[in-house]
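User: Just a sanity check before I run the rest of the batch. Below are the structure tokens for the first item. I only need the designed sequence back.
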């Protein structure tokens, strides 16, 4: 009788031990599958999430554009109503958010009786910009050699904001020339005073040439987002001053 009870206890112990082992294996398999599945879902989500556009990216003489930058470009006509602004080139493209904001800006101007804006230039590839730069050098080999004392109008191919898709050259039907006088037009003044409400800044202001190394360009507007644009406008800064705290005396 004692032997039979011991035998039963041994069998019960073995069964319990086996059940523990099987349970542990099942739990491990479930956890592994769950983790593996979660990993797959995470990867899938990350793969389909577009990389956030850096709207405050600084491109200037000291900060060449990143070769890996790939803005989400759309054609101007896809985001800007032709009733709000026209284009010199239907093939021109712009970063999506910047283009949508520009359309809102032009629509607001139109509501105030300011219209006839023309987008003279938008996204340009580095190759296109290098060609423009080379043309300047062909005319003047010393062009751009001392930009902070002799600011330029054209930038080298790897230092142009146009390659970000965030910059627009905006002129008008009444003044379709990229010169200082545009800043005195009704259209130019409206942009200078209201662009920040839509996330744009006058990128190369007057009296900041010694910081930007670029001439006063009342037609060149750059998208940075409403918050940053508003602070830059209210404090009278250029982008270098806002991002780097760069303050230079003339």
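Assistant: Here's the designed sequence for the first item:
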């Amino acid at each position: 009788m004692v032997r039979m009870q011991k035998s039963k206890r041994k069998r019960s112990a073995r069964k319990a031990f086996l059940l523990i082992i099987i349970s542990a294996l099942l739990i491990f398999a479930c956890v592994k599958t769950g983790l593996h599945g979660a990993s797959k879902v995470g990867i899938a989500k990350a793969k389909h999430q577009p990389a956030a556009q850096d709207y405050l990216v600084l491109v200037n003489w000291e900060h060449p554009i990143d070769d890996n930058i790939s803005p989400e470009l759309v054609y101007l006509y896809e985001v800007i109503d032709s009733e709000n602004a026209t284009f010199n080139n239907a093939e021109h493209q712009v970063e999506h958010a910047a283009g949508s904001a520009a359309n809102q800006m032009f629509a607001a101007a139109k509501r105030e009786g300011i219209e006839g804006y023309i987008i003279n230039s938008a996204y340009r590839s580095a190759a296109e910009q290098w060609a423009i730069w080379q043309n300047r050098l062909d005319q003047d080999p010393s062009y751009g050699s001392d930009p902070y004392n002799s600011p330029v109008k054209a930038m080298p191919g790897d230092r142009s904001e146009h390659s970000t898709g965030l910059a627009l050259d905006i002129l008008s039907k009444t003044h379709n020339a990229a010169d200082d006088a545009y800043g005195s037009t009704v259209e130019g003044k409206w942009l200078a005073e209201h662009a920040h409400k839509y996330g744009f800044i006058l990128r190369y202001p007057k009296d900041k040439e010694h910081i930007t190394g670029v001439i006063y360009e009342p037609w060149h507007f750059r998208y940075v987002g409403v918050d940053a644009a508003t602070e830059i406008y209210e404090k009278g800064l250029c982008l270098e001053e806002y991002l780097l705290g760069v303050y230079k005396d003339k």
